[in-house]
Write a structure and sequence with these properties.
By secondary structure, the protein is α/β, with parallel strands linked by helices. The chain has 10 helices and 12 strands. Its EC number is 1.1.1.262.
Length: 319
């Protein structure tokens, strides 16, 4: 399997962790980096290549080279580089859809720089990749060895969650999660645990009625379609070790309900996975880390985990 790493924000830690991850995994999988080689850490050994399907050098980072313009200053986003960052993502998606690579692993971007420098019109990577892939809806999953989680609503205020949490959104999220685990993780009959919205999953309506009026009817409908669904469950009792043995993924109603448990269990090893795309996409579960960029101390653990997971997902699609 060949996985391409897109450069991400050049002034962040993306180039550094890409090089460290390649060094850790180069004997185990095929990787290429898409970006401007001038933005790699000083002293990086790299080889410019033209075709990711061909023979790759064993002792230097294979680079699909692009020219972004000025050199970045570590820790300071430069909007002049925005067009290049976007082009790297477009290149990775195009190569994946053409079958020239088996998936992409995207380094973190700085959305403000993309907006100011290139009029970037998307909330983030995920929505941009969905547009590139020609799909209307995708699902964000965070995964580590101990847990997989999917938030139904993502980057919105907690006060807005009840209004945004609709039967159609919940049903679509559950269907995409079910299909993604089948296609990308080789689970023929994935077990999906579904959290309630309210404390104690509403406690029969005493602490909220969304479980009764919205969540349970959707679960009953999808169970009739053959999905293996557990819940709605109280969120405060579904993430301990014993509970996690009974499901393959936890679908949660809002951002922190999903992300607090996984980041507590494995902060460094979490991987962001986009389900529902026509190609494999993973990403490390952290940001650009401007405060440590250029210092050589960035931890590549999440990037390594993201690359490994991309390779495993690509292999599952080929079975």
């Amino acid at each position: 399997m060949t996985i391409a790493i897109t450069c991400g924000e050049p002034a962040g830690i993306g180039p550094e962790i890409a090089v460290k991850a390649w060094a850790a995994l180069r004997d185990k999988m095929r990787m290429v980096w898409i970006g401007d080689p001038r933005h790699l850490p000083i002293g990086t050994s790299y080889t410019v290549i033209d075709d990711p399907r061909g023979s790759l050098p064993a002792d230097s980072l294979p680079v699909l080279a692009q020219d972004y313009g000025p050199a970045p200053t570590p820790g300071i986003a430069d909007p002049r580089l925005a067009a290049g960052v976007i082009h790297a993502i477009e290149t990775g998606a195009a190569l994946a859809m053409a079958g020239q690579i088996d998936g992409i692993c995207t380094a973190p971007i700085h959305k403000a720089a993309l907006v100011h420098g290139a009029g970037f019109a998307y909330p983030g990577h995920t929505e941009f990749l969905a547009a590139l892939g020609g799909v209307d809806r995708v699902v964000m999953m965070l995964a580590c060895d101990a847990l997989r989680v999917v938030p139904v609503t993502i980057h919105i205020a907690v006060a807005d969650v009840p209004a945004r949490l609709t039967p159609d959104l919940l049903a679509e999220t559950l269907r995409l999660t079910h299909a993604g685990l089948q296609r990308d993780f080789g689970l023929n009959a994935p077990r999906i645990a579904v959290a309630g919205l309210n404390p104690h999953a509403g406690e029969d309506g005493l602490m909220g009625r969304e479980e009764i009026t919205l969540i349970r009817p959707v679960l009953d409908q999808l169970r009739a379609e053959g999905l293996d669904l557990i819940g709605p469950l109280p969120a405060d009792t579904m993430f301990h070790a014993g509970a996690r043995q009974h499901y393959d993924v936890a679908v949660c109603m809002y951002h922190d309900q999903a992300l607090i448990p996984i980041k507590t269990l494995d902060f460094a090893g979490g991987v962001n996975v986009t389900l529902g795309l026509p190609f494999i996409r993973t990403s490390p579960d952290h940001g650009t880390a401007f405060d440590i960029a250029g210092k050589g101390i960035a931890d590549p653990a999440s990037m390594i985990a993201a690359l490994r997971m991309a390779g495993q997902m690509a292999a599952a699609r080929k079975v």
